[in-house]
Amino acid sequence: MTPESTPHHRRLDAQFVGGLAWTAGAKWVTQAVTWLSMLIALRLLSPSDFGMVEMASVVGMLTNVLAEFGIGSAVLQIRELDRRALRQLNTVSLIFSTAAFAFGAAIAPLVAAFFRAEQLRLLVIVNSLGFFITAVQAVPMGLLQRDMDYRRLSLAEAVQALVQAVVLVATAFAGFGYWALLAAPMAGKAASAALAAFWKPVFYALPRPREIMAPMRFGLEVAMSRVAWTAYSLSDSVIVGRVLGQSALGTYRIAIDLASVPAEKIGMLIMRVTGPLFAHVQKDIALVRRYFLFISDALALAIFPLVVGLAAVAPEAVAFLGGPKWAAAALPLRWLAIFMTLRTLNTLMTQVLTSLRFTTFLMWMSILTFTVMPVSFFIAAHWGIGAVAAAWVIMSPITMFPAAVRLFRSIHCGFREYVALLTPAAVGTAAMLCAVIFMKRILPAPWPAGWRVALEVALGGAAYAGTLLSFYRPLVMRYVRFVHGLRKNRDAWAAAAI
Asked: pLDDT band at residue 74, thresholds of 50, 70 and 90?
């Protein structure tokens, strides 16, 4: 982003900033409640409870992608769709969701037999009811994103998080066990879908293949990519549950949840806004490049220190948050935290490639990844859940590098330019890591885990900030001007900041 931005650019910048403000506000309002509910659940529920629901969710997450069939993405990216086509797509969404529910109910006995847990039969069937919620929200959510209506998107997300937190705590206290982990996300998703359908009502119409062939083809490629992505993303949990058992899977699941926090709460916060933005500027490569580089820089500065810091304090953090029974989660947490950094940057690249209509390429990349990752997980499982987590990092050059090559060629960006962009965050993070290691060595061993984490985080944060201010002060001041512009008004920041 440059001071020479045109009025059109400044309007887009203002919408982007406004979207960040709304999305961040919704996240901050719900964050405390979400974390509190999860901590309560950790104390009230067992690793086996988490493992049981993780097993049931394997089928649900995979089939949910087929139920949605990429329709929401088609509505967002193919901006020329009219109301008639949207009604037909709404009907198609309902048809696919019904088929997904029938499929989930049919294979429930097989899932129970595979994991050797009869309770899974009913869990899978009940979890499949969520596919009808997917049918209701696919088109309305796509329209909200296409309109860049960040205010309503943020409100829907906030309502979903709050409802989920309340239901989780209430059902856990009531003694529902693993059912609490299933009921909470379903209730939150239903509340969000109801709001989206109210704001963007779309009726139904008989599908006419000739009229919706283009969005259906686009949706098919997106759906196939997501199916393959979901399958290989879940394959580690499937293999851990099958090879190492229910308790190990519950521990591994908690490591994933903790490692995902920085990426989901900051990275995904930003990328919730960038999806509609890239869809809007998809035909202007210069603008695509402009926003991609700026957002990559912001992501690196925000996420690098958080994920590396989390990896550094993993044993103390696990002991403080969950207690001794979760100690085995520390090693996989370290590997997964590092991987989440790579995944966040790759997710942004995938988002841009989707807006540029490289959906066929992305589909084949997801299929390639699906062929190599499960084999890696199965081999690694013989060395425990830490090795399974490490496989994500070890295999990342194969699964992520081709997407970077395709994107950089498309937007005329060199690898050196991209690496130089990430260097300040990497240098500051290295200084932070050294500070944390130093604090670990000088703190007395008997100190409580909570105090150790607090001191390590404080010194690490100071080292990171000090390094940036000392060696990359112009970069820091650029973002200071950026934030200052936000506080004044939506137009002023564009001329004063980046």
From this structure: confident
